[in-house]
Amino acid sequence: MNEQVPMDSPELNTRIIERGKELYELLEGEKPSLFQRSRWVGRIMDWLLRHEELRTGVFRFVDVFPSLATSSMLVDHLHDLGSSDSLQSSLRWVLRHASRGGWLTRFALAKTVRYTMRKLGEQFMVGENAREAVRTLARIRQEGCTFSVDILGESVLSGAEAEAYRRLYIDLVEVLSRAGSEWPPLGVPEKTNDLDWGSHPKFSISLKPTSLYSQARPVDFDNSVEAVVMRIRPVYEKVLESGGSLCIDMESYQHKDLSLEVFKRLRAGYPDRSHLAVAIQAYLPDTDNDLRQLLDWSEKQGLPVSIRLVKGAYWDHEVMRARQNGWDIPVYMNKSETDAAFERNALRVLSHPTSYLACASHNIRSIAAVMETARSLGVPDSRYEFQMLYGMAEPIQRVLARITGRVRLYCPCGQIVPGMAYLV
User: Fold this and answer.
1) Do the bridges between strand 276-281 and strand 407-413 make them parallel or antiparallel, or are there none, so unpaired?
2) Which among 224, 255, 322, 411 is most buried, taking Cβ atoms within 10 Å?
3) What confidence tens digit (pLDDT) does each residue in 236-264 have?
4) pTM, to two decimals
């Protein structure tokens, strides 16, 4: 690999800043549907973004919400939020006094909250099953973006549960294959083939290894890897048969090495099929070495690799678990360190001549850095794309789709209420 442009280059940094300013200018006047203050959902999210205490309390409530079976249980949990000064005084009064009201008051408040929670979940999830999801996915493609669907869930507890997830994925692939046959390819002025951007399948799924195997254990590494590969292989072969692509999603730190090894085994097992990706988390200090080793492996094996570079979604879990067990904390403690690692590892992937980068970030600086680094290295557009979460950063999605034409939305699918707790 030849890292031709150091990230600390003043010239490159100047171009990144200028590109970021251009992107911000393009965002002027854009407002995502979720954050319009005239809508109640937008106001809820606005509160959460501005007030850390309230955000923490609400996220805890969301986490237990699926288990609150009665109106009294729900209202009692809400009562704790009533002491937050971040809430409007009228809402504080409602929450504080609802627990002392009669059954009708509790019922009305509980019904309102459940409706709100469901609508909030629908903002971030494309459907509760594959057939519901297809309608949303068709709209996403009409708006110029492609997608990767993730069935919510990980770390199943039994073989029966793992088999249920496998059947869900097989059903998802079959539904997407049928729908995809009717979708025109994106980003191709003249239809030379049936691939998006001339080179990518029209549908992709994301899969967490532990969702298909209940006994994955780091202490039994080799057997766990073999078992996971055995269970993923039929799903992957179904994806290939149906003309799709697969991404091995990264999970918590304890399963990092397993996920990387599963990816290598699958990639080597199907050397002529390159539509397989793996997620890499920038917030892990380990990632510098892991990515270097993966790209070296790719070069030695003569196998191009696709990297979905993310910041990381398990920060709170990793910090809490490490502190409880007296372990070294496996993640960067400062956001600036994660942002710098993201740019550093994006450079590493872009500098590797046979690697493909999926820049999975909503951060304008990170996006601008990938765009300008690719430009400095002379990397063609066909070697990278931008990915974002469905329902978030909608103005950036629209701007990037317009100026790059290469945006993929990460689309969770599953039961709305349990899914909300999972997404938190």
Assistant:
1) unpaired
2) 411
3) 999 999 999 999 999 999 999 999 999 99
4) 0.87
